[in-house]
Amino acid sequence: MPKDTITAADEQKIIEAIKEAEMKTSGEIRVHIESNCEGDVLDRATEVFAELHMHQTAERNGVLFYVALEDHQFAVLGDAGINTSVPDHFWEDITAEVIKNFKQKKYAEGLARGVRMAGEQLQAHFPYDRHGDINELSDDISFGD
């Protein structure tokens, strides 16, 4: 079970990174952690993206960090509004940073760093509007089986 690996303190560290990142951008970031990934990791991340209704943000600027702990699978997935705006290496750089930490079993640190990197990049394309921005998606981590 993911909750056996991700402690309450880890969860708090990741949520704080999400809140910090979202203070810089109107982008919405979610983290989903489960044990296993059946099939292709990007296909599963796309399913979770839909299940979490992440495609329903006003600017189509949701980002999902998907982790299957036992299967050692990771994907970061952005909605249509982001993919047309960010540089080509955007996802690869974040993935490399997260995986580097995962290999050292630093799951919370890796996810927190990746989330902050996403927030920094999204700030340029989807700046935070302190008067009009609302938190469209929960900052809580979602867990699968």
TrEMBL record:
- Name of the protein in its database record: TPM domain-containing protein
Q: Where is the TPM domain?
A: 4-120
Q: Which InterPro entries match?
A: TPM_dom
One family name in Pfam for this protein:
TPM_phosphatase
In its UniProt entry, the species of origin is given as Pontibacter actiniarum
Q: Which Gene3D superfamilies match?
A: 3.10.310.50
